[in-house]
Amino acid sequence: MRRLLLISSSRVHGSGFLEFCREAISEHFAGVDEVLFVPYALADRHEYEALVADALEPTGIKIRSIHHADDPLEAINGAQGIFVGGGNSFRLLKTLYDLDLIGPIREAALRGVPYMGSSAGTNMACPTIRTTNDMPIVEPPSLDALKLIPFQINPHYLDADPNSSHKGETRMQRLQEYLEENSVPVVGLREGSWLEIAGETCWLRGNKDMILFRQGIDAVEINTGSDVSFLLMPK
Amino acid sequence: MRRLLLISSSRVHGSGFLEFCREAISEHFAGVDEVLFVPYALADRHEYEALVADALEPTGIKIRSIHHADDPLEAINGAQGIFVGGGNSFRLLKTLYDLDLIGPIREAALRGVPYMGSSAGTNMACPTIRTTNDMPIVEPPSLDALKLIPFQINPHYLDADPNSSHKGETRMQRLQEYLEENSVPVVGLREGSWLEIAGETCWLRGNKDMILFRQGIDAVEINTGSDVSFLLMPK
C-alpha cells in the first residue's frame, strides 16, 4: 500500500526548513531507522544532505543521502523510507533516468516504503513533470515521472498579485494552458500545505487551502483538512 | 545576413500590445508587404492573428498567419518576413518540430528574411529553450531551438521582489541553476526591451537595462542603448 507525503515546499515564510510539517514527517516515517535522501535536484549534494539532516534532527529521523552509495539501485531497494528533496525538477528527473532509478523508486513506493517529496520531489510523484514551475535547464529523456498518483500537482502554487505590473503568465494561466493540452487534473498546492496519501485515501493538510484545476470546469478551492480521496479514483 | 528583432514581451505595463516597440517593428520590416505570423504558442490561432493584425495596423504591415496555409513549409519558404509570437514555448517548439519547420525557419532567417520574435518567439531564436519561463505542458522531441544566435535569452526577466514571502526560486536563482549545468551565456531581457541583430552586430534597445549571466562570473547590468555585439562572437 502506497504511503506518500507530498509537500508543496520545504521552506515556508516565517518558519525553518521543513519545520512547519515536522510532526507529519515524524508520523510518516514512524518506525523507520534511516531515511534515504535523494538530493539530485540541487547541485551541492553534500550541503543539501546536511541541511536536511539538521532540519530533521529534532524528530530523531536519521538521514543518509543516496549520493554516498556505490550502488544507488541497491540503496533504493534496501531503503526503509525515501525522501526526494526539492530543487530543479528537470535536473532531478534526468538524474533518476541516468541512474535507472525511476522503476526502482516507483516499485519501492508502491510496495509501501514511505515516500516523501517536497517541491520537485512532489513533482516526481505525479504522472509527468508537465506542471513543474522549474526552468528546463537540462533535458531528461522524457517528462514522464514516477506515476505514484493519477493526478498532477503544482507545488508552490501562487495566487496572482493584483498589483503586479509584470506581464508574464500568472500561475493560473499556466495551468489553464496545461489543461488546453492535457486532461489530467492538477492540484495547485500552496506553500505550507501537503497531501497525505495512504492506499486509496488522500487528505489535504497544512495551513492553506488548495485549488483544483480540471478540464472544462472552473477551478475550485478546497479547504485544508479535507478528504480528497476522489483524486485517486480512476476517471 | 541575419536580421533579428528579439523582444522580451508583447505586452508591457501601461501600453498596448506591441505598442512600445512599434517603430522598431516598422523599421525591421521596412519594404516587406506581408509578414508571416507563427501563432503556435497559443491555442486560439485565429484570435491571436487578429490581435497581432490589429496591433500592427498603424504600421501598415500586413499579417498573414501560417495556420491558414495548406503547406506551412511553402509558406515559410515564400515569406518576406516572419514573426513568431509569444505564448507557451514548449507548445510552440513541439508544433515546429511536428510540422518539420525548424530547419526551414532557420534557413530563412540565416539567409536574411527578417525574423521577429516576442517572448516564446524570442526563446525560439536561441540555441535551446532551456531558459524559458514556461511550463512544460507538452513534450517536444528536443529542447533544441532555431540556433539563430549563440547565446540564451530569458524573456520577461524579473527582478526579485524584496517584500515577497513566496519561497519559489527567484528568476536569478533559476538562471544560476542553468549555469550550473550549461556554459552558454544568458541575457535577462526585461519587459520593454529588445535586441536588434543585423549580421554580426547586436544592440540593446527599449526602456530597460539588461542583465547578463555567465558561468563563473558575477551577473552584470548593461545599459539600454548599448552595443552588445560581443555576445555574437565565438567563445
- Give the strand order of the largest sheet of chain A, numbering strands 1, 2, ... along the chain: 3-2-4-5-1-8-9
The biggest sheet of chain A amounts to:
7 strands, mixed
CATH topology of chain A, anyone?
Rossmann fold
Number of H/I helices of chain A? 7
Q: Mean pLDDT of chain A, rounded to whole units?
A: 97
What percentage of amino acids of chain A are in beta strands? Answer: 15-25%
Any idea how many domains of chain A? 1
Task: List the quaternary state of the chains.
Answer: homodimer
| Largest interface, C-beta closer than 8 angstroms, per-chain residues | A-B, 38 and 38 residues
Helical percent range of chain A?
A: 25-40%
- DSSP E strands of chain A, number: 11
CATH hierarchy class name of chain A: Alpha Beta
> What structural class do you assign from the helix and strand content of chain A?
alpha/beta
CATH architecture of chain A: 3-Layer(aba) Sandwich
CATH superfamily placement of chain A: Class I glutamine amidotransferase (GATase) domain
| Outline type of chain A | globular
Topology order of chain A in helix (H) and strand (E) letters: EHEHEHEHHEHEHEEEEE
In a few lines, what is going on in this structure?
Two copies of one chain form a homodimer. With 235 residues, chain A is α/β, with parallel strands linked by helices.
Question: Can you put this structure into words, describing what you see?
Answer:
Two copies of one chain form a homodimer. Chain A has 235 residues and is of the alpha/beta class. Chain A has one domain (3-232): Rossmann fold, CATH 3.40.50. Helix content of chain A is 26%, strand content 23%. The first copy, chain A, contains seven helices and eleven strands. Chain A has helices at residues 22-28, 45-56, 72-77, 89-98, 102-110, 120-124, 171-181; strands spanning 3-7, 34-38, 62-65, 82-84, 115-118, 152-157, 186-190, 193-198, 201-206, 210-214, 217-222. In chain A, the strands form two sheets. In chain A, strands 3-2-4-5-1-8-9 form a seven-stranded mixed beta sheet, with helices on both faces. The model of chain A has no long low-confidence stretch (mean pLDDT 97). Chain A binds chain B through residues 9, 11-14, 43, 87-88, 91, 128-139, 142-143, 156, 158, 165-169, 174-175, 177-178, 180-182, 191, and chain B through 9, 11-14, 43, 87-88, 91, 128-139, 142-143, 156, 158, 165-169, 174-175, 177-178, 180-182, 191.
